[in-house]
Amino acid sequence: MSALGISRSQLASEATAYNISTVSGTMIYFLIATVLGVLCIIFHPFTKQLSLEELPVNIASADAFDDKDPFAPAPIESKEEDEKENDNDEEAWACAKCGMVNHGKYCENCGAPGPFVPKEEEPKSVTFEPCPAFALIDEEEQERKETLAKRQAEAFQNPTLPEVTRFVVDYARDSRLHLSYTPEIIASFIAGLGATKLTILQGMSGTGKTSLPKIFAEALDCDCRLVEVESSWKDKNELIGYYNEFTKLFTPKKFTTALYSATLEKETINFIVLDEMNLSRIEYYFSDFLSLMEAEPDKRVFSLSSVPLFRQEDGTRKDYLGLTKGTTIRVTPNLWFIGTANRDESTFEISDKVYDRSNVINLNHRAPKAIPQGQPRSPKYLSYAALQGLFDTALSSFAFDLDTVPYLSKLEEILAPYNISFGNRIARQIEAYVRIYCSCFIDKEAHLNEALESILLDKVVHKLEYKSIEDKESLAEAFEAIGLKRCAAFVRSLSEDL
């Protein structure tokens, strides 16, 4: 080594420098490889997606990709599906050739091409309905006409009051319920209809109070609607309904819809039955209608709301058929109110104000069992005009004047100590009742005393029930002395109850 002129120490230093340079180059290559590997990892999904997109369409499908690969692309749709989707995005157009509405480039019916004329949308109807219940009743106008035509085809031919009375008795007896009502009860009910617009059927439970107006209406093909009175009723709104100032909607109760329907059926007799009407105090919820009975028939109107109720459709006002000026409803002459009243601790006492404006029928005894005499009968339609005509004939043809009754003054003397009397209103009702009641029988005169005592007992003498009577037997004998035997029996029954 010395011969070459190179010392050992020089060789050692050169070897060390070579090793360092070799290691530095290796590190540089390792770092470059590491950077390239990281870049490949980062750009791997994009390069894979690019390679897949370059594949031919006929070999690319959902099956060609791994479902487990989160980077797998969505399946490639066919050309036909893509065109169909694009067609659905087109606006609707009407074919100029056949008129069919299309969404694609060609008519689906005749194959004709566009033009793409956008279909004109129908204008949306803007409607405000403040009382949907009334609107539903109005929509039944055609059905009401058809029903009336069917009824008129089965109408009573030249009816008389005796025929009507006998028919109702027979119809109830042979009906599916086999109801037993005497001709006197039916005559009393008919006479009450002619005397006043309110009839009260009172007595113990199970005597047929609710069934009477229902079977009467069924026999004569009339309308009878039942309204259940609730003990919580405190004012007329419980009976009529409410107007909501916030929603601008009127919500009628069952009574109001029945009243509204009656105004649209002027040709037909209508009953609204207030079932168990003395569960609440009658004056609380029914006082307005008690006052209406004093008005002339053409002035019996009731205000439902201070805000006019009418439909609005596309800016056009449409009135409800049964309302006047959108606020009032008329109590039409073809409508009667029938109240049933139980006599127990759960009910309230009926006041003289109510009694004086009503016809009262006391049903305190169980009727005898009805024995059917044939198959159920078909109803016979009796219109309101026909019934009113029968009333007018009875009132004019049968002469009766209450002032001519010989014992009337004596009766007033008997009742005076108990502060019981009657005025002109009751006197007119008594005269109308007696005339119509007697006209319900062929032998009219034979039923005169029966009719007079019946109404005097139910409307006048019956008020003794709520009086304190010290000597009931003497009072009964006083009634017998003037020929009022039923009144005497009533007084004696009070002594048995007390």
Structural description of this entry:
The protein folds into 3 domains: 8-64; 132-391, Rossmann fold (3-Layer(aba) Sandwich), CATH 3.40.50; 398-498, no CATH class. Helices cover 43% and strands 12% of the residues. The protein has 17 helices and 15 strands. Strands 5-8-14-4-15 form a 5-stranded parallel sheet, with helices on both faces. A 3-stranded antiparallel sheet has the order 3-10-11, with no helix packed on it. A 3-stranded antiparallel sheet has the order 9-13-12.
Question: Radius of gyration in whole Å, from Cα?
Answer: 47 Å
Query: How are strands sequenced across the largest beta sheet?
Result: 5-8-14-4-15
| Shape label | elongated
> Which band does the percent of strand residues land in?
5-15%
Helix content: 40-55%
Mean pLDDT: 82
**The CATH superfamily title of the largest domain:** P-loop containing nucleotide triphosphate hydrolases
What composes the largest sheet? 5 strands, parallel
Low-confidence stretches at least 5 residues in length (pLDDT < 50)? 46-68, 81-89
State the helix count. Answer: 17
CATH class membership of the largest domain: Alpha Beta
Structural class: alpha/beta
Number of domains: 3
